[in-house]
Structure formats: C-alpha cells, structure tokens
Write a structure and sequence with these properties.
heterodimer; A: alpha/beta; Glutaredoxin; Rossmann fold; Ubiquitin-like (UB roll); five-stranded mixed sheet; 14% strand; B: alpha+beta; Arc Repressor Mutant, subunit A; four-stranded mixed sheet; globular
Chain lengths: 641, 169
C-alpha cells in the first residue's frame, strides 16, 4: 500500500495521493452519495444520511464515512455527503454506484428498504426512482433522465459526485496538477497566453476575457497584487456559484492559485454572500485543507511562489458584485463603486493591482491549463467557448442547476432538459409559455421567437438580453410583465448604492412610473417617459448596476408592448394580476339574473334582462366593488374571467 | 448600582473579545460588525461607538458602514428571524402570499418587522439561492422549501408552542 508522505507545509506527490485514493476507493464495494446541497438539506437529506449510517451498521454492513487512504480493510460501502447534484426539485437525492441508481424524494422512512434491498441484495427500488412526468417511464439513473442526459456537465462534473471536503478525492480527479504545471513549467506570461487562447470569458455577467484581465494585472509593476474570487452572487434566481462553492470548492482554490501565478498576486480573497452559509463553510474548509497540505502558503510545491487565501462574507449589498465596490467592501468601507479608469486590475485593494474573477470562471481555469486552449475551444461557440451553467427555475417542470455548451438553444434547455412549461394549474402545458427572464436584474426577456437562437454572450446581447450570471426564470401566461418589470426595478432601486444621481434618482422615478401603470394612474405618455428615463439612466450611471438596471424594463416593454398598452390605454391588466386594473366581470354560468347588482351599482354600469346573465359596461364601471358585495351567488369576479 | 455596572461590563466583554479576535484591524470592520451582530443579535449604538473608538475610526464612518449593508440591523431582532425569499423564482411562484400570511399572523403592520414580544422578526431577502425549491423561507437559517402560507403558519405555531412549553418549565 502506498503511503502519503506529508512533511510539514510541503505539498504531497499528486500521483501518490491519487493512486492511494483510487486503491482505497476500490476497497469499497459501493458508493452511496447523499446530496448535501442547500436544496436537499432543506428537504431533510442530512437525516437520511444519518439514518443510512445507522441502519447500514445495524444490518452488519461495513460502511466508511470519508475515505481513509491509510486503512486497507475492505468495506461494503463508502458513504459520502456531496454538494448540489442540481436536480433540487426532486430531492433529497441519493445515488448509488456502481449500480448506477438515482433515488429521488428519499426520506428517512425509505432508508431500511434501501439498505435491505439495494445495499444488501443489489436490487433497485422502483418507487424511489425518477419517473418521466410525460411517459411515466421509470428511469434507473442519471444517464437515462433527460434532465441530466441532455446536459454537458463540465464545471459541474464533480459537483454532487465527489466529497467536497475530501482534498485527496479532488487530487485523485487530476486536482492541483494544473496548478503544479502553471507553477513549475509555465511562466506567468505563458499562463496568460493559454487563457487568452482559450477565449474564456468572465461568467459573472459582462463576459470580459479572463486572459486579458490577467495580462493587464501582470503588466503592473508592483510587488503587492491581489486576486479576488467574486462569490457575491446577488442576482435573484441564480445559484451556480453557490453550488460550485458547495460542491467542488477546491476547483476554485486551484483556479485562484493559477490566477495568482499568472498575475503575481500573493494574497487572494474569496468574497461570498452571507446568504450562503454552507458555501462559506465549504470554501473555508477547502482553503484550510489546501493550506495544511502545502497548496497554499510559502514556496508552493517548491516553485518559490507564495500565495494564501482569505474568505470574507458579504453583508447584504448587491452592488458589491461590482469589482470596485467589492474592493471597497473588503477594505472595510461602504461598498460603493468608483469611476473607471483606472480599472481594479491597475488600482484595486489598497491601491494595488487586483484581479476580480467570478467563481464559475475560476472553476474552469484548471481544466484549460491542464488540457490546453484548443481542447477547451472544442465546446461552445467561436466568440463564447466552453459551457455555461444556468439556474433553471420558475414555471418549468424540472427546476435545478444545469450546464450546457454555449450556443445551445433555449428550446433545448426549456423543453428537453427542463421538461416543458407548467401552466397556471401547475401541470405541464407548453402552450402556456410566455417568456424566460435571463440575466437577472441586468438582463432581459426571451420569448417564443427566440427559442432557436444559439445562446451565447453576443447573440443574447444583440437582442437586448444578456447571459448575465445565468438565471433562467421561466414564466407562464399567468405572469404580468408590468409586474415583473416592477419587480426588477424595485430590486435595483433598493440596491442602488446612492452614489451617483442617475441611478439613485432615476431608478426611483422609473419605479414610480411603473407603479402608476399598475395603479391605473398612467396614460400613454407614461411609456415614452419610461423609455426616455431608462436610456438616460443606462447612459449616465457610474457602474454596471445603474447601467444595466433599465434592461429588464426596456426588454419587457419591447417584447410585450401590447400588454403595457392595455394597462395604460384600456386600464386593463390582461392577466388579472394588477388589482386596480383587473375589471369585474359576471360569470354567466353562475349568474341567476336576479338584478341585485344592477340596483347596487352607483354608476349604472350593469344591465341585463331578469333571469338571464347580466353584463358590466367596463367603460362606466368605477371598480367600487359594490356589486360583488350584493351578489349572493359569487358570480362576480375580479380579473380576466 | 454595582450590579448595573457589572452587567455593563459583561455587555462589553463580548465586543472586546471580538475586537481582539480581529486584531483591531480597521479594514476588518465588516467581519467585526458581523460578529457583533451575531453576539448581540443587532448592533447596539453604544457598542458601535465602542468599536469605532477601538479601531480609531470615527463613529460616523462605522455608522455609515453599518447602515449601508442590508444584513446589519440597528434595532433588536426577534429570537426567530424568518426570511422569506423574494428572488425572481420565488416571486413568480408566489412568495407574496407567504409574506402576506405571515404579516397577518404576526400582526406586523406598516414598516414593523419585529413582534412586540421579540419572538419573531419577518424579513424579505432578495435571493437565498435555493430557487429549485421556490418559494423558500428560512427560520434562523433553517431552510424550508416549496413553502405554502399554511405551512408557514404551521411553523410559527410550532415555534410558539415550543416557546410556551419552555416558559412553563
């Protein structure tokens, strides 16, 4: 058996660790992976984990928790808590290998059966397996389920499969080899060249080429430089950074280490949202493990390079996702952006060159360095190589975290992976599809006409949307687009830091105008006014928050103009979501024709023949509600009937 | 009088320990305030002033930082902090209904966020990142997914019962 030599502060031999881990893994007959991502934990996966541990022991099975590479006893199973497996909706998830089984909705009560049937006898339990919602077919494992099979999981390939707290397992999957290559075999300029050749673009939203950013920092003639991992994933409806930090934190640590090599940074910061307590725990643990094993610290792997990482929690300010605001926040100040240039790569933390990269960006760096730029470019499109993770949520059959190559169409994502749209009653109904909001509060809307556009940075930008951080929120026809526009404007108005006037006052006024529409105070001039204001705010705001804040509103106005016009011209909300604009109507099936409502109506807006269904003249109706109060048959309803 | 002074001293002991832990480094003001809030459940004014003086910062600067970030609260929070996610996914799946139901049950009107008995604080947050389970709410960081107004009220009820039983013992 191989022994891992761990000298104080010296990184172990990667091949020895990998071989030791692999042979230890081979000594366990099965591997049971319980998803311990935020979603599955919320559904009780930790209780399932504990129950599996206890029940397997009762059944006399030898189960190892975590893998001890120095213990060569044979085991019946290795029990692992993983990060997010992506299919949160059907959690808690349990996978069992090599049987290739995925169990969904697993609860503590199911554990005895899993132990007795699957672990002891190797049988699959049909009722716990995923059932295709359309065909009703039972699917054995991830390979057979469209949600997984239609994806191309690269950044997420280890998320939900490995033990995120096991450094050795990360090494066994080629971990830290790219860092070793970058530190010992490549010059900083060569690392920058590879990144430039790969065409990797920042996944935080703007899509700036990572190689160019690093090169700019490398060129700065300063001894002290910094690298920041931006994990302040503030876009509502996006959680890929959380999942990567929870599921494969070492990929981020290694990416930062390579970034440090490329730029000359000696200190790194991981800035994580405080709303992600588990991600904070996991990245902290990974940093500590890497430091203890000599992958962080002084003279890393004998290269002469010093680098260490600190983890900092955000304090609840969306604007801190902006690089200069984040820099200000890390230094202990209000997180306000500053005018550029100089870029943070020139003057950042304490006035020193500082590179800010997103979590998902950093998580792919090691693959690129290890396998080369050409290999990386085999996936994705010419201008946007590689894959993108999306958080698929809202009115869609399969919600969860997915990853597809750039250039994949919305149709594939929505109908093949997502399993189609859910209608008002929560049942699959593709005809109910209205729009997908992409890119969060900086992004825009995609509709039926965009279903076949290959999604990448440029194609989405061209139609006024953006990849952004990758939130895809599906909306069905019960969603009011004016309300959605207001939702995003309310968010950005609330998060505007207040430093520059266009953003601070502009977002407030746009919000007030949207409220006018919703409350029925607007007229046709309101829409023009909103557009004009939006253009001004986008043009003149100091940072990306203000510059992109009008995007959702403009996009929705462009795609759904008739719906906005119905609100301002006809004073009617077609979906019945805006109370003030949802007219009363009489249900002819329920109306007995008693005439009580017509008597009660102060505007004489109701008319009809006795014993037949009455009608409301919408032009005359004051929407006072007097009729509703008098009707004994509940025949008068608000909103679109 | 002496007991009053003693409890005052105890009150400041915690913040002194926190300041020591962060080496009185003014650039670590945010983690310091986070630790203070965790300890005291909010940021009491006198503690903020003490932090400012200890870090050689102006109280205005510390106040500025404390009011900038959404997580910091200058008012005492309830023992149970309920956060309802109002991210996009939760919003389209009906988080407004959750908030309305909880506000009515907890009798929180207008801008009031904390119940008079300091048992509950109700907040909305922009995104908890558990969009796959929308709508989502958390009670002291315990996540409840696919929440309904009825389930939310059930949670409030069980906490009240637990607290009542605790008080009775």
């Amino acid at each position: 058996m191989l022994r891992i030599e761990s000298k104080e502060g010296r990184a172990p031999d990667l091949e020895v660790v990998a071989a030791a881990w692999d042979s230890a893994r081979a000594r366990a007959l099965r591997r049971i992976v319980v998803c311990a991502g935020t979603g599955c934990i919320a559904n009780g996966s930790l209780k399932v984990y504990e129950a599996l541990k206890a029940r397997a022991a009762e059944a006399g099975l030898k189960v190892s928790i975590g893998l001890d590479v120095h213990n060569d006893a044979r085991k019946d199973a290795l029990l692992t808590k993983s990060g997010c497996q992506g299919f949160c909706q059907v959690g808690p998830l349990v996978t069992i290998e090599p049987d290739g089984i995925l169990y969904t909705h697993v609860h503590v009560e199911d554990v005895p059966e899993i132990v007795e049937k699957t672990l002891v006898r190797g049988e699959a339990i049909e009722r716990l397996q995923y059932r295709d919602p359309v065909s009703g077919e039972v699917k054995r494992g991830k390979g057979e389920i469209d949600f997984y099979a239609r994806q191309d999981r690269r950044v997420l390939s280890a998320c939900g499969v490995v033990d995120p707290e096991d450094l050795y397992e990360y090494i066994a999957r080629d971990g830290y080899r790219a860092a070793r290559k970058a530190l010992l075999e490549m010059s900083p300029a060569e690392v920058c060249e590879v990144m430039k050749a790969s065409g990797l673009r920042g996944r935080g939203g703007a899509g700036f080429p990572t190689g160019r950013k690093w090169e700019l920092a490398l060129r700065q003639d300063e001894k002290e430089k910094y690298i920041i991992c931006n994990g302040d994933e503030g876009d509502p409806g996006a959680f890929m950074d959380r999942s990567v930090l929870e599921g494969n934190p070492h990929s981020v640590v290694e990416g930062m280490l390579i970034g440090a090599r490329a730029t000359g940074a000696t200190v790194g910061y991981v800035y994580v949202r405080a709303e992600y307590p588990l991600a904070v725990v996991r990245i902290r643990a990974a940093v500590e493990a890497a430091r203890a094993s000599g992958f962080l610290g002084k003279d890393i792997m004998g290269s002469g390079v010093d680098f260490d990482i600190r983890v900092m929690e955000g304090a609840g300010a969306f604007v801190c996702g902006e690089a200069s605001a984040m820099v200000s926040s890390i230094m202990g100040n209000r997180g306000m952006p500053r005018p550029k240039p100089p870029r943070t790569a020139e003057k950042g933390l304490w006035g020193k060159p500082t590179v800010v990269n997103n979590v998902e960006t950093l998580a792919q760096v090691a693959t690129i360095v290890l396998h080369g730029a050409a290999e990386y470019r085999r996936t994705g499109t010419e201008s946007s190589p590689g894959t993108k993770t999306y958080a698929l949520t809202g009115h869609v059959a399969n919600t969860g975290l997915i990853e597809v190559p750039f250039g994949t169409s919305l149709r594939t994502v929505l109908f093949d992976i997502g399993g189609g749209v859910l209608g008002k009653d929560g049942k699959p109904d593709n005809a109910a599809f209205k729009a997908v909001q992409i890119g969060g509060p900086s992004g825009g809307c995609l509709t039926k006409e965009h279903l076949d556009i290959p999604m990448d940075f440029d194609s989405l930008g061209a139609i006024g949307a953006m990849v952004g951080s990758g939130g895809l929120v599906v909306m069905n026809d019960s969603t009011c687009m004016v309300q959605m526009a207001r939702f995003f404007m309310h968010f950005t108005q609330n998060e505007s830091c207040g430093k520059c006037v266009p953003c601070r006052e502009g977002t407030r006024q746009i919000l007030a105008l949207l409220d006018d529409i919703i409350e029925g105070r607007a007229d046709e001039t309101t829409l023009g006014l909103i557009e004009e204001l939006c253009e001004n705010v986008a043009e003149s705001s100091l940072c990306g928050l203000g510059a992109s804040a009008p995007s959702p509103v403009l996009s929705m106005l462009r795609q759904f103009r008739p719906e906005f016009e119905a609100h301002v011209r006809d004073k009617r909300c077609p979906t019945g979501q805006c109370k003030a604009l949802s007219p009363f109507a009489i249900d002819p099936a329920a109306c007995k024709g008693c005439g009580m409502c017509a008597k009660a109506c102060p505007a004489s807006a109701i008319s009809g023949e006795r014993k037949e269904a009455y009608r409301i003249d919408q032009a005359a109706c004051l929407r006072c509600g007097a009729c509703v109060a008098t009707c004994k048959f509940n025949a008068i309803k608000r909103g679109a009937l | 009088m002496s007991t009053c002074k003693e409890s005052e001293a105890l009150r400041f002991e915690a913040v002194v320990a926190i300041l020591d832990r962060y080496e009185r480094d003014p650039s670590r003001l945010i983690p310091i305030l986070q630790a203070v809030q965790e300890e005291y459940r909010y940021l009491p004014e006198e503690i903020l002033t003490y932090v400012a003086v200890s870090l050689d910062l102006s109280p205005a600067k510390v106040y500025g930082v404390a009011t900038f970030y959404g997580h910091f609260s200058l008012e005492a929070k309830g023992k149970y902090v309920i956060k309802v996610c109002d991210g996009t996914a939760c919003h389209v799946k009906g988080s407004t209904g959750l908030v309305d139901a909880l506000r009515a049950e907890l009798r929180l009107e207008g801008k009031k966020k904390t119940t008079d008995d300091l048992l509950f604080t109700l907040e909305t947050v922009s995104c908890l990142g558990a969009c796959g389970l929308a709508p989502v709410m958390t009670v002291n960081d315990e996540v409840h997914g696919l929440a309904t107004p009825a389930a939310a009220l059930e949670i409030v009820k069980s906490i009240r019962e637990k607290e009542a039983a605790h008080a009775a013992n």
